[in-house]
Amino acid sequence: MEDTGIAGGAPEAAAAKPRLGGGLSREAGMLVAGLFVIAGAFLYPYVEGIADAVMPGCLFHRVTGIPCLLCGMTRSFAAAAHGHLLEAFRLHLLGPPFFILVLLLTALLIAEYALSRRILPRPGTRVWRHLGWGTLGLLAAAWVARLIAFGVNV
After folding, report:
1. What is the DSSP string of 79-110?
2. What is this structure's pTM?
3. Residue from 96, 104, 97, 112 nearest 26 by CA
């Protein structure tokens, strides 16, 4: 049997790999997204003024005066990337843990491509659904904690 570089070695598994945009696998898309997020976190302090001028900011915050669930996440990632963890936690309680998660998953995806074998598990739809709802619950809890601890101006 031919080695496909995928755990299990079945050629059917390689052929069934989901593709994005006409040839990019889901894993490759996640890797590119992870690299983009990491690069953005490191570069954000240097382009913050340009980004603020080009991007309109959070519509929810502009309309309500209250930060949304993700307000501060970009600045938190940037602070975490530059080693300013207290500032990162102040900007968004989940910023540093999510940034570390992105770093770890991106590194593991790079290792998968370098070794030509799977390292990370591939969860099914039900698991992804539970992860999504759990993440939304964490974001809501962090949002409430942030509003109680710091108020609306962070």
Report:
1. HHHTT-HHHHHHH-TTHHHHHHHHHHHHHHHH
2. 0.77
3. 112
d(CA 28, CA 24): 6
Q: What is the pLDDT of residue 21?
A: 53
In the 3-class helix/strand/coil scheme, how is 1-24 assigned residue by residue?
CCCCCCCCCCHHHHHCCCEECCCE
Other CB atoms within 10 Å distance of the CB of residue 1: 6
25: β partners = 19
pLDDT given at position 22 = 57
Tokens 């970009």, residue located: 74
Q: Residues 41, 49: contact at Cβ < 8 Å? A: no
How far, in Å, CA of 50 to CA of 141, rounded? 32
Residues forming beta bridges with residue 20, ordered by sequence position: 24
Residue 109 has pLDDT above 60, yes or no: yes
Structure token pair of residue 58: 């959070």
The dihedral sign for the CA sequence 102, 107, 108, 114: positive
The residue with tokens 């309500």 is 64
Mean pLDDT (the chain) is: 83
pLDDT score at 154: 62
